[in-house]
Please model this.
Amino acid sequence: MRGGIRVYCVCPGYVCTSMQDRELVWEASLRNMTAAKVRAEYVALTPLGRIEELEDVAYVVVFLASDLARFMMGEAVCATGGASTGAPAGAKNSIISMSTDTPTLPIQMRLDQFSG
Model:
């Protein structure tokens, strides 16, 4: 790492913003349906069961700027509530398992441990 700079790309999902509201209206007009119906489809496609808030994206950025991400570099981080995984709706209690380089240090966590 040169100059102490780490580079990341944060890839958000359906974020609740005024721009998203305009997109909902636009998509609804293209699909001949209501914006509320399009929004409901977005929620149904998101395993965490809701539209992403600005704070959800901000928390990812704060994590990436912290020492907790000190060994990450050049990563594209999807913060989509699972929408990009193809997981079924309601999968928020799924268990994520991953192994570190040391087999004796497995990491397991439930996604619902991180909800407010």
About this structure: Residues 18-31 form the longest helix (14 residues). Residues 8-85 form a domain with the Rossmann fold fold (CATH 3.40.50.720).
